[in-house]
Automatic annotation (TrEMBL):
Residues 34-189, 192-341 form the F5/8 type C domain. It comes from Streptomyces yaizuensis. This is Discoidin domain-containing protein. CDD domains: E_set_GO_C (cd02851). The lineage of its organism: Bacteria, Bacillati, Actinomycetota, Actinomycetes, Kitasatosporales. Residues 18-35 have a biased composition (Low complexity). Transmembrane segments: none annotated. Residues 770-780 have a biased composition (Polar residues). SMART domains: Kelch. Residues 1-35, 758-780 are annotated as: Disordered. It comes from the Bacteria. Residues 1-11 have a biased composition (Gly residues).
Length: 816
């Protein structure tokens, strides 16, 4: 080690994170953007060894060419499997089945298209798994692939199987009834346990075989303090304690345990756990045979050891027998968590992974059970100002995804502002083409250009106003940095009006990168009279008026919160918002666990700290549900764009009645920078995306639907739901009453605004509880508030809830 200690710096001082340019690879992107970290170029899960594998296909071409299925396993991209085409071509669908001839945990399929032409590229697909080659069950993943030659990684929840089948339903370009593949690979266990949930750590203690207490605070207890900046470090002062090192968690109660989650230190590589075993005990003395064993990669990503079977234990011991990089005899850990089996009625459940033909960086919920998504000029990367955008629409009823490149607006809509307009259209502004603005009309499924903004922007925020106009502020990521004052778009004239009295300066954070980062992703809440409360991410809150030249008036600070860039805010009730997570700067600083409530009553704004999340999060997404609870998905405890390191895979649910967070079922795929989440019309939640960094492995061109616990029984079966059977017109003015009929008793009604999300920000979310009175058997008079500052004009989902808080499927209604 020469003159450096175990921490990586002189005298054992911790090695601090390098600057963004060190050890990282360019993301083939705009010069504005951060570069992709080195670990974004490595797969999160190992490629499985193909030795002994065999493959069969529904059909193959053996006459006109060597198009045998076996070619996908020969390691030669120039040889391909081709569906039969000589004579009478075999019709779609075509399937190819890999037999690993052994059972393994599989979490993804890597499809490499042929490189000598486009014919036969897989379009719509499904992936199925089997233990015996006979019983397949429901697909573990479905989706649509982009029509290009890039390798496609199709992820799904880790599943143990021997057989894996890829079925091509369509040809990507609809050129014919063919399917081709150059190579197929499978990904192994990424360390993400399926159907588990984080166990609460209250009352836990930790002891270690040895710990450093002299040269630094490296006590074992640090792995349970919720702070990844504090670590357990094996003893190194004087004579270092030799490997192996062990750390034992005493839960002080006996419970079912399914996995151990290990978070490496984030300030340097020394002491990362490599080879390890996990054992359990009921008494702390007798530990049985290992329930998990293996070797972790030498990187800073969160690692999971999934047990061979669920154990009933009080004590769980991690024993590290090798340092991942063989740098020395040390072991370190930032945090250790344990997971147990999930209960659907308490923790919810995840559906299958749905593949998209692009990384869904931005999404909007549409009437007709559709979800609009888009990325940039490319499906997997961004950069420049190319004048077109890759878009897709997910049909929530069928699960099918259709792709379209939008050229007619001349607008690359990457990193935009979004506002859901009063008539249900979607206004998208700026981004890579920083001055442009485009509108999507769901009624006609068409895109059109509207007038350019006065100020070129990217990473700006928008909200609809009570007047029906759209307000935009900030956005120094694109265009010249700074001076991103507010402006307003009129639906009557389709033009923009400057607001010289609304500079962005008072709403900026103190980010060390200056305006380029400090005026991004603002949290905006529109109220009566065309006013807006800017409540973050800066700790300073502000009232904004939009009449005339506009004005900005301080509204106080967000209690004791610091700046919280890459956090978010959610309007969970009338005049009540919840803010979650974030970090003092855009990236490369620790995120916070803190959450705050912000209450708005007329001109008065009050902020207070509510319960903390169990885990710190930046780049997370939050969704308010019809019952008023708020679910938060994904994020990182140490935000780094394009990285899956320090990912938080356990969602949490905030209850306004208690102010506390509880864990939800573990996610299969990280959702960090460039991820999204949206409430769906059936009361479930879509979570997807992340990445868009070119040839990196952290591109997540997929999503999954989460079923919240309010919809499920303990056995996973659906709870009986109320139903709205009539009385909901397609449009109604604010201040009117509806006579709504239901299929049975209901306790309440609520309007949920159809929302749009990007970059962890969704200013369109809004929950409006409604006053209702009985009007006969299963008939209710439901009153819509008259104040357009409460019920902004636009498209809403009307839910009925029963006495247990179970929501109906929504009916769409446009409030004018």
């Amino acid at each position: 080690m020469a003159s450096t200690g175990p921490g990586g710096g002189p005298d054992g001082a911790a090695l601090r994170p390098a600057s963004a340019a060190v050890g990282q690879q360019a993301a083939k992107a705009s010069p504005h953007h951060a570069v992709a970290p080195a670990n974004a170029m490595e797969p999160a899960a190992p490629l499985l060894d193909r030795t002994g594998w065999t493959v069969t296909a529904s059909d193959e071409e053996t006459g006109a060419e060597n198009g045998r299925a076996a070619n996908v396993l020969d390691g030669n991209a120039a040889t391909i499997w081709h569906s039969r085409y000589a004579g009478t071509p075999a019709p779609l669908p075509h399937s190819i089945t890999i037999d690993m001839n052994r059972t393994a945990v599989v979490s993804g399929l890597v499809y490499l298209p042929r490189n000598d032409g486009p014919n036969g590229r897989v379009g719509e697909y499904s992936i199925s798994m089997s233990a015996d080659g006979q019983n397949w069950g429901s697909p573990v993943a479905t989706g649509t692939l982009a029509d290009d030659a890039a390798a496609k990684t199709l992820g799904f929840a880790p599943t143990g199987a021997r057989f894996v089948r890829l079925t091509a339903v369509t040809e990507a370009g609809n050129r014919g009834p063919w399917t081709t593949a150059a190579e197929l690979n499978l990904l192994g266990d990424p360390g993400t346990p399926a159907a588990t949930v984080d166990l609460p750590r209250t009352g836990w203690t930790a002891t270690a075989s040895d710990e450093e207490t002299g040269a630094e605070n490296g006590r074992a207890a640090n792995v349970l303090d919720g702070n990844p900046a504090t670590i357990w470090h094996s003893r190194y002062a004087g004579t270092p304690a030799p490997l192996p090192h062990s750390i034992t968690i005493d839960m002080n109660r006996t419970t079912a345990v399914s996995a151990l989650v290990y978070q490496p230190r984030n300030d340097g590589p020394n002491g990362r756990a490599g080879a390890y075993t996990v054992t359990t005990s009921t008494d702390g003395t007798t530990f049985g045979t290992p329930v998990a064993a293996g070797t972790w990669r030498d990187d800073d990503t969160v690692k999971t050891a999934t047990f061979t079977s669920t154990a009933t234990a009080r004590y769980v011991r991690l024993t590290v027998t090798g340092e991942a990089g063989n740098r020395g005899p040390w072991t370190t850990a930032a945090e250790i968590r344990l997971s147990g089996p999930a209960n659907p009625a308490t923790h919810g459940a995840w559906g299958r992974i749905t593949g998209f033909p692009l990384v869904p960086v931005a999404t909007a919920v549409l009437p007709g059970d559709k979800l609009l998504a888009w990325s940039a000029y490319a499906v997997d990367r961004f950069g420049g100002s190319n004048g077109y955008t890759q878009t897709a629409i997910l049909d929530l009823k069928t699960g099918k995804v259709t792709q379209r490149r939008v050229d007619n607006t001349g607008h690359d809509m990457f990193c935009p502002g979004i506002a859901m307009l009063a008539d249900g259209r979607v206004l998208v502004t700026g981004g890579s083409n920083a001055e442009k603005a485009s509108i999507y009309n769901p009624a006609t499924d068409t895109w059109s250009a509207t007038s350019n903004m006065n100020i070129a922007r990217g990473y700006q925020s928008m909200t609809l106003l009570s007047t029906g106009e759209a307000f935009v502020l900030g956005g120094s990521w694109s265009g010249a940095a700074g001076d991103k004052a507010g402006e307003v778009w009129s639906p009557n004239t389709s033009t923009w009006r400057k607001l010289p009295g609304v500079p962005a300066t008072s709403a900026m954070t103190a980010d060390p990168a200056g305006p380029y980062r400090a005026d991004n992703h603002m949290w905006l809440y529109a109220t009566s009279g065309g006013r807006v409360l800017q409540l973050g991410p800066s700790k300073q809150m502000n009232w904004i008026t939009t009449a005339g030249n506009g004005s900005v008036t301080p509204a106080g600070t967000r209690a004791d919160s610091q700046d919280a860039m890459t956090g978010n805010a959610v309007a969970y009730d009338i005049g009540k918002l919840l803010t979650l997570g974030g970090s003092p700067a855009y990236d490369n600083v620790p995120a916070t666990r803190r959450a705050y409530t912000v209450s708005v009553n007329g001109n008065q704004v009050q902020a207070a700290r509510t319960g903390d999340m169990d885990q710190a999060r930046a780049f997370a997404n939050s969704v308010v549900m019809p019952d008023g609870k708020v679910a938060v998905f994904g994020g990182q405890s140490y935000p780094v764009p394009f990285s899956d390191a320090t990912s938080v895979l356990t969602p949490e649910l905030w209850d306004p009645a208690t102010g506390s967070f509880t864990p939800l079922a573990t996610m299969a795929i990280p959702r960090n920078y460039h991820s999204v989440a949206n409430l769906l019309p059936d009361g479930r939640i879509f979570s997807g995306g992340g990445g868009l960094c070119g040839d990196c492995t952290t591109n997540h061109a997929d999503g999954a639907v989460f079923t919240p616990p309010y919809l499920l029984n303990a056995d996973g079966s659906p709870k009986p739901r109320p139903a709205i059977t009539g009385g909901v017109p397609p449009q109604a003015p604010a201040g009117t009453s509806l006579t709504v009929t239901t299929g049975g008793p209901v306790a309440s009604f609520v309007l949920m605004r159809a929302a749009a999300a990007t970059h962890s920000t969704d200013n369109d979310q809004r929950r409006v509880p409604l006053t209702s009175t009985p009007a006969g058997a299963n008939t209710h008079t439901v009153s819509i508030p008259a104040d357009r500052g409460v019920v902004l004009p636009g498209t809403y989902m009307l839910f009925a809830l029963n006495a247990q808080g179970v929501p109906s499927t929504a009916r769409f209604i446009t409030i004018s």
